Amino acid sequence: MARSFVLSLAVSSLLAGPAPSAEVPSKAVEKTLVLAPDGRLAVETYKGRVTVTGWDRGEVAVRAVVTPDGSCDDAAELVEKTRVRIEGGGREVRVVSDYDDLPKLHFTFGDGCSSRPFVTYEIRMPRGASLDVKDYKSRVSVDAVAGDVAVDSYKGVVRLKHLSGRLGLETYKGDVVAAFDRVGGDVRAETYKGEIELVLPKGSKVDLDERIGRRGTFEADVEDVRGGPRCTVETYKGTIRLRTE
Question: Rounded to two decimals, what is the model's pTM?
């Protein structure tokens, strides 16, 4: 009888299916601020995702979602203490992932979470405004921003397309692809040991300034001319490619 009772319980458990998983704590922040068509948007974050798209409105619309990096007893508290600051308006808007209220050191090994949650941004900004992104290890995507763009990422993945203004890129060991509709200003690309690919419109001519270390690699299929937009490429032991299509 005892064996029959245990078997009955096991079958009932299987029929009931797996126990529902605990809901992942998260929070969303949304805000829209006025920004001049030729203003500046500055984004500073640590890890997660940043998606920026240009549009024909004189405002910045930001949606941010904060989620924990793993699971631990205080994941909800870490999410709650992560602040998303969306400030300014007019000539400049600043968006910052603020971890100042989190414990300075908090690591749980195994099935745990680190002290800094992920922040995922979806941002719309005036097409002609300039963009400055500082990041540690996020995935950064920028599309249809015609103003100047600057991205400084430690080891993130960066994808930029439909660019037409000045461009400044710096990464330690990240992976960057930047595609231009038009080379409308100077370009600077620097990496220590990452990979950067610059894709220019067919027939583009630039004034090349190459600073390639002994262990670095540089490949280019564009025409090098004096007097065109200046393109400065620098790497110690990474790879930079310059091509047209």
Answer: 0.86
